[in-house]
Design a protein that fits this description.
This protein has 431 residues and is an all-alpha fold. It has a domain at 11-42 and 246-421. The chain is 60% helix and 3% strand. The chain has 19 helices and 2 strands. Strands 1-2 form a two-stranded antiparallel sheet. Helix 11 packs across helix 12 and helix 14 runs parallel beside helix 19.
Length: 431
């Protein structure tokens, strides 16, 4: 009878070997599909759209559906089948659900729909109302507006789908006697409603600015309401604090081992609501700290020189997005530490507050090391081929796009943990 999993080579050797493998797999896949020097060169779009949706669909498969109906398959067959299913569902969600269903009513969510309109000459807008939009502009890698709109949906979903499981213990679907797939489909439906709520409030106004302000005049879209709060009307304000919310959320079941929310003894949904409010506040404070402290190590005069003309010399948009990038550098440390180094700490009790702070400070130190490696040692250029990083460090900050790489890197790790059940790095103890 198979018992609990244990690291095949003990610790820390199992963690070191597995993470070297994940890094190698990520780098090879990056070179094949996204590196400008590679055979496909899909950088950053449209491949980042598929990358983001793969993680979201993988979360549905593992966290909501409980790996149904493949949970009892032997490895590595189960992992291979779930990966194939993931890719099929990703294609279906993007090209059918978004492009051909939701895109019928909300064209800004359909890249193929926008391109069809542009090819038919129906997006030409009189000059008095704004800039005209051509097929060439829509397909330019620096634009691809609908693909970006779907990615912003996924950004919201990275939080709004898992937070019901992590903070609310799957309330209101659980506790119940629902079996799979009914339970998973209920989770997906409930969380999709919440995702659409957050998306409407936090993301749609930005696309209202793009389609109603930049490319025409519209009364059907709202406009960004956060300009006076953030110092910018760009959606990067949302990116900054929402990404830190995601980090706080996922640190909870990983290296924090559900602390500090274990201090809240109330029943659901009150425990989840209080945890959610604290999560929002803490995420915003961390992002704001990044915005305020970043000028301490950046030469802001040089950074401002390289800002896009649309920023008009004001760095607020850049600083909020860079806050999200800083948050992204914690992903590899805390996921690897929990899943493949088994929350190692010098304390005998891994759940103690001493171990909590040890791992928290350790993740922050590793975040700084990752940041330095990417920007100052310029891994983004010599390792990833990002042509935006050929010049000085100030220009690298503007165009680093490190968040893409950090999410790319964690896919092999997540896939191995979610779909392959840590095969072959962990083995079952036999009883």
């Amino acid at each position: 009878m198979a018992g609990p999993l244990r690291p095949r080579w003990g610790q820390p050797l199992t963690g070191i070997i597995s993470n070297i493998v994940f890094f190698g797999v990520a780098l090879i896949l990056w070179y094949i599909f996204s590196d400008p020097r590679g055979p496909v060169g899909s950088f950053p779009y449209p491949f980042v759209l598929y990358l983001a949706m793969m993680i979201l669909v993988g979360l549905w498969q593992h966290m909501f559906m409980g790996d149904w109906p493949f949970a009892d398959m032997p490895q590595p067959a189960r992992g291979i089948v779930q990966t194939i299913v993931n890719l099929v569902v990703v294609w279906f969600v993007i090209h059918v659900i978004f492009y051909r269903v939701l895109g019928l009513g909300f064209t800004f969510l359909s890249q193929s729909g926008l391109e069809a309109l542009a090819a038919a000459g129906k997006t030409a807008i009189p000059e008095a109302c704004g800039r005209s939009l051509t097929l060439e502009a829509l397909t330019n890698p620096s634009a691809r507006y609908a693909e970006r709109a779907v990615v912003t949906f996924v950004l919201i979903g990275f939080y709004s789908y898992p937070f019901v499981t992590i903070l609310f213990g799957k309330w209101p679907v659980r506790p119940s006697d629902l079996k799979q797939p009914q339970a998973g489909l209920c989770d997906i439906g409930w969380c999709s409603m919440l995702t659409l709520f957050f998306y409407t409030v936090l993301i749609v106004p930005f696309w209202g600015l793009i389609w109603g302000g930049v490319f025409g005049k519209s009364y059907g879209f709202g406009m960004p309401w956060w300009g006076d709060i953030a110092g910018t009307t760009h959606v990067h304000w949302v990116f900054g604090w929402w990404e830190w919310m995601i980090i706080v959320l996922f640190m909870t079941p990983n290296v924090w081992r559900m602390k500090p929310w274990t201090l809240i003894k109330l029943p659901q949904p009150w425990k989840g609501l209080i945890s959610f409010v604290i999560n929002v506040v803490l995420g915003y404070i961390l992002a704001l700290l990044c915005v305020k402290l970043a000028p301490l190590w950046m030469n802001m005069e040089e950074v401002i020189k390289h800002l896009p003309a649309a920023d008009k010399g004001m760095p607020a948009r850049f600083l909020w997005y860079h806050a999200a990038e800083i948050a992204g550098f914690t992903l590899i440390p805390f996921l690897a530490w929990h899943h493949y180094f088994d929350d190692m700490a010098p304390m005998a009790d891994k759940d103690s507050w001493g171990a909590f702070w040890y791992r928290t400070i350790g993740v922050l130190i590793l975040m700084v090391i990752n940041y330095y490696f990417f920007y100052y040692l310029n891994f983004g250029h010599w390792g990833l081929g990002n042509h935006h990083m050929e010049h000085g460090v100030a220009e690298r900050f503007i165009h680093g796009e490190s968040l893409i790489w950090n999410f790319w890197w964690i896919i092999p790790l997540l896939w191995n943990e979610w779909f392959f059940h840590k095969w072959p790095f962990y083995v079952h103890e036999r009883h």
